[in-house]
Structure formats: structure tokens, C-alpha cells
């Protein structure tokens, strides 16, 4: 998820990544004949047909007319090699209706054991970028991403290193808000799904040294219009010991403040639940020396409907910010969590994405 910044009269800088929205939660069931205004309208166990297809929708989509319309795909990984723990993030997005910064890909690597971090962002000319419709076939200078919903191959090359990995899903796809369609912020709809558990293996090369890595990845696929009124967002992903996958979103728009999560059970069923706004439990601000933006590095995450309280903290080092062409940035950071999930003790590792202004 990943980054696109839009400036307007009604909004501060915003990123593109994964999506969200939700105002109030009710116990009423959604009707299959309508698109709910927020994920809150979804039933706890959705039998509404999905509006996204994890096989066909890995391909490029026909763009809408909006200037801020985007196509995005990315994955985050937790892998091990040579007795060390690494976090990986690869993302590519396009905004075909823009004249500048329209085609982009990024790689970031954090050695959680030593704290070493490096990222790379490439701007690509439209003529040099290919993303096929109907299938996952992306080619650009320094980037190759091919495959399908069963197996994928990703190759990335930068001046300081490279990544060559294979990804294979080991569980069901997650449709955000249970159908894959919801309001991103302030009434703007988006589409998104995830492949939340992908067996990952391959080679990570850093400054001439090769690491044979193994671990797991979480892939997100998103497209739609980016609201210009979006002030900030936070996204977190959790893989629970019982097999549940939890995707949490916390957004602040010009007209809305929304905090919610999609829960995917191992049997493919869903729950969509309210989350206490993250600002209430955010602490230990870190200010980027490169962009001047501030981000929390600790959170107390509360999900009352799931009897869940989690302490989440950035790992490695806090400076995992990816800068953008307009001089701002967004955080793609590894985090660790521990606490109670559905009344049972849990711990694990995941990622957090933050964008926008956190001083207020």
C-alpha cells in the first residue's frame, strides 16, 4: 500500500495503500441488492457475493475519469535468513490520469535484528511501464511481477541490492469489508482484497551479500479513487495464532473519522467490527529528520467486539519512512504486537502503514 500524495485546499498530504471507511456499526444485516455506505452495514458473517475476484482482479483495471484514480498492488513480508529477521515491502501503483509521478514502484528492507534499513523508489515513464489487463503481468525498469492467485514471482533490482522471491497463498483470500467494496473516506468507494498468507522464499541481496530468505507475506490489491479530503490513515495487518487474519483501518477525512477491521476466519467467514480510534492509544511520537512529519511508534489497539486489547510497537528502528516526490513521506514499518485476542494471550509480527499528519 504505498504511496501517493495529493494536496488540495481541503486536505493535507495523503498516501495510497490499502483502504477503509466506516462511521457507525449496527447489528442490522446488509441487503445484497445495495452497496453499503460503510463496512458497518455488513452482517457479521457475510454471505453476500464478493464484488472482487482474486484471480481476474490481479490484472490492471480500466481507469475511472477521476484525476486521483489509482491501481495498486503490494506485499509486506516477515522473513528469516542467516539467523536474522528481515521485513520486506514491495509496492507498485499507477495513477494514469496524472501528468507527473504517475507510475511508481518501491522496495524497502529492514533488518529487524540489527536495525539496518534501506528503501528505494523508482519513477517510471508510461512508455516503460506495463501492467496487463486480466492478469498479473507487470514489467518496468528494475521490476518484474508475474503470476496469478496460486503462485507469483517478484524480481526487484536497485543500486544497493535486489530481491527475487516466489509467493504462494496458503489460505483463502480476504475481501475487505467482506465483499471487497466499501467507502474509503468521505463517501468515496474503493475496491480491495488481500492474499493474507503467502509462503515466501527466495534471495535477498544487500550490498553484495546474498541472503536465502524464507517466511510469509501479506499481499494487498486495491483500486479506485483516492479522496482529496483524506487527511491521514493508518493500516495494520495481524496474523493471529488461531489462524484469523485481521486488517485494521483508521482514517481521518474532512468529514469523517473511521476505525474498523475486517476479520477473516480460517473457514472463509468474516466479521467486520469497530475499533477504538487509534489516536486514543497512540504514543511515543517520532519526527522524521527528512520530511519533518511525525508518527506514533506505539499503540494500544482496542477492539471491544472481539474482546481484544493489543500493544503494538515499531521494531528495528523508527526511521522506516519512504519519501515521496513532493517532499513528504509515509511510514511502512515493521511492528510487533502482544496482548489479548478474543480473551487469549497472543503475540506476533506485522506491518503498519501511516500517512498524513499526526500532530493533531
From TrEMBL:
<feature type="domain" description="AttH">
    <location>
        <begin position="82"/>
        <end position="225"/>
    </location>
</feature>
<dbReference type="GO" id="GO:0016787">
    <property type="term" value="F:hydrolase activity"/>
</dbReference>
<keyword id="KW-0732">Signal</keyword>
<dbReference type="Pfam" id="PF07143">
    <property type="entry name" value="CrtC"/>
</dbReference>
<dbReference type="InterPro" id="IPR010791">
    <property type="entry name" value="AttH_dom"/>
</dbReference>
<keyword id="KW-0378">Hydrolase</keyword>
<protein>
    <submittedName>
        <fullName>Hydrolase</fullName>
    </submittedName>
</protein>
<dbReference type="Pfam" id="PF17186">
    <property type="entry name" value="Lipocalin_9"/>
</dbReference>
<feature type="signal peptide">
    <location>
        <begin position="1"/>
        <end position="32"/>
    </location>
</feature>
<dbReference type="InterPro" id="IPR023374">
    <property type="entry name" value="AttH-like_dom_sf"/>
</dbReference>
Amino acid at each position: 500500500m504505498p504511496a501517493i500524495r495529493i494536496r488540495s485546499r481541503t486536505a493535507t498530504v495523503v498516501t495510497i495503500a490499502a483502504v477503509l471507511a466506516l462511521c457507525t456499526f449496527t447489528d442490522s444485516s446488509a441487503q445484497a441488492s445495495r452497496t453499503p455506505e460503510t463496512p458497518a452495514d455488513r452482517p457479521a458473517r457475510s454471505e453476500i457475493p464478493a464484488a472482487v475476484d482474486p484471480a481476474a482482479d490481479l490484472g490492471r483495471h480500466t481507469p475511472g475519469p477521476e484525476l486521483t484514480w489509482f491501481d495498486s498492488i503490494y506485499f509486506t513480508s516477515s522473513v528469516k535468513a542467516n539467523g536474522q529477521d528481515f521485513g520486506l515491502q514491495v509496492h507498485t501503483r499507477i495513477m494514469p490520469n496524472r501528468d507527473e509521478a504517475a507510475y511508481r514502484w518501491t522496495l524497502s528492507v529492514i533488518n529487524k535484528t540489527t536495525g539496518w534499513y534501506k528503501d528505494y523508489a523508482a519513477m517510471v515513464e508510461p512508455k516503460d511501464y506495463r501492467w496487463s489487463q486480466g492478469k498479473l503481468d507487470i514489467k518496468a525498469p528494475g521490476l518484474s511481477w508475474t503470476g496469478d492467485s496460486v503462485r507469483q514471482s517478484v524480481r526487484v533490482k536497485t543500486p544497493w541490492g535486489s530481491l527475487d522471491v516466489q509467493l504462494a497463498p496458503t489460505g483463502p483470500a480476504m475481501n475487505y469489508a467482506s465483499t471487497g467494496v466499501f467507502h474509503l473516506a468521505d463517501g468515496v468507494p474503493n475496491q480491495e482484497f488481500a492474499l493474507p498468507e503467502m509462503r515466501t522464499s527466495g534471495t535477498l541481496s544487500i550490498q553484495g551479500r546474498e541472503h536465502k530468505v524464507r517466511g510469509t507475506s501479506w499481499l494487498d490489491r486495491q483500486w479506485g479513487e483516492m479522496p482529496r479530503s483524506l487527511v491521514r490513515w493508518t493500516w495494520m495487518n495481524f496474523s493471529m495464532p488461531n489462524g484469523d487474519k485481521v486488517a485494521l483501518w483508521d482514517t481521518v477525512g474532512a468529514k469523517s473519522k473511521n476505525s474498523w477491521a475486517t476479520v477473516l476466519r480460517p473457514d472463509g467467514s468474516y466479521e467486520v467490527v469497530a475499533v477504538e480510534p487509534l489516536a486514543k492509544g497512540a504514543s511515543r511520537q517520532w519526527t522524521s529528520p527528512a520530511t519533518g512529519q511525525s508518527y506514533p511508534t506505539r499503540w494500544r489497539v482496542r477492539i471491544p467486539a472481539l474482546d481484544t486489547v493489543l500493544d503494538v510497537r515499531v521494531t528495528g528502528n523508527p526511521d522506516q519512512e519512504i519519501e515521496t516526490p513532493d517532499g513528504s513521506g509515509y511510514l511502512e514499518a515493521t511492528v510487533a504486537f502482544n496482548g489479548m485476542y478474543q480473551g487469549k494471550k497472543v503475540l506476533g509480527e506485522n506491518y503498519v502503514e501511516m500517512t498524513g499528519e499526526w500532530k493533531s
